[in-house]
């Protein structure tokens, strides 16, 4: 199956159908944010429901996507254990808010400009 460069990740072409890895990742991330919001509403005010991004981690799952990239090793990915530390650190913050999105203990925006994920 040939690999074609597509955005930041690689696209797979099979039977003239392209798999856009970055689009699939973005959709999965959006789903996680929406699921967090729904679970937080359902759980009520006494339960904290949040989502945490581990950051871009150097994992076996991502390596095949970047092996053909000449600078894979120079990409600024953190070791997976640092991603786990970031998640743990986020979850022990005293002011953790429900239905929010965190990276390394810092609150992150859930909506990005031009992504059409927030209705005005």
Structure description:
The protein has helices spanning about 20-45, 65, 80-90; strands at about 5, 10-15, 15-20, 50-55, 55-60, 80, 100-105, 105-110. The protein has about 120 residues and is α/β, with parallel strands linked by helices. The protein has one domain (about 35-120). A 3-stranded antiparallel beta sheet has the order 1-2-3. Strands 4-7-8 form a 3-stranded mixed beta sheet, sandwiched between helices. A hairpin with a 2-residue loop joins strand 1 (about 5) and strand 2 (about 10-15). The longest helix is centred in the first third of the chain and has 23 residues, at about 20-45. The relative contact order is 0.14. Residues about 1-10 have low confidence and may be disordered.
Compile the SSE list and pairings.
Layout: E1 3-6, E2 9-14, E3 17-20, H1 21-43, E4 51-53, E5 57-58, H2 63-66, E6 78-79, H3 80-91, E7 101-103, E8 106-108
Parallel strand pairs: 4-7, 5-6
Antiparallel strand pairs: 1-2, 2-3, 7-8
Backbone shape: globular
**N- to C-terminal distance:** 42 Å
Helix content: 25-40%
Strand order of the largest sheet: 1-2-3
Give, in order, the helices and strands.
Answer: EEEHEEHEHEE
Contiguous runs where pLDDT drops below 50 for at least 5 residues = 1-10
Round the mean pLDDT to the nearest integer and report it. 76
Please indicate the percent range of residues in DSSP E strands (runs of 2 or more). Answer: 15-25%
Provide the domain count.
Answer: 1
User: Which structural class matches the secondary elements?
Assistant: alpha/beta
Q: Give me the number of helical elements.
A: 3
């Amino acid at each position: 199956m040939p690999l074609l460069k597509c955005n930041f990740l690689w696209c797979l072409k099979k039977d003239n159908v392209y798999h856009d890895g970055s689009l699939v990742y973005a959709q999965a991330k959006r789903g996680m944010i929406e699921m967090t919001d729904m679970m937080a509403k359902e759980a009520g005010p006494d339960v904290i429901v949040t989502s945490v991004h581990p950051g871009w981690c150097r994992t076996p799952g991502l390596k095949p996507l970047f092996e053909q990239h000449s600078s894979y090793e120079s990409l600024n990915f953190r070791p997976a254990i640092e991603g786990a530390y970031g998640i743990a650190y986020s979850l022990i913050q005293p002011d953790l808010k429900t239905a929010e999105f965190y990276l390394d203990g810092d609150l992150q925006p859930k909506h990005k400009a031009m992504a059409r994920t927030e209705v005005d």
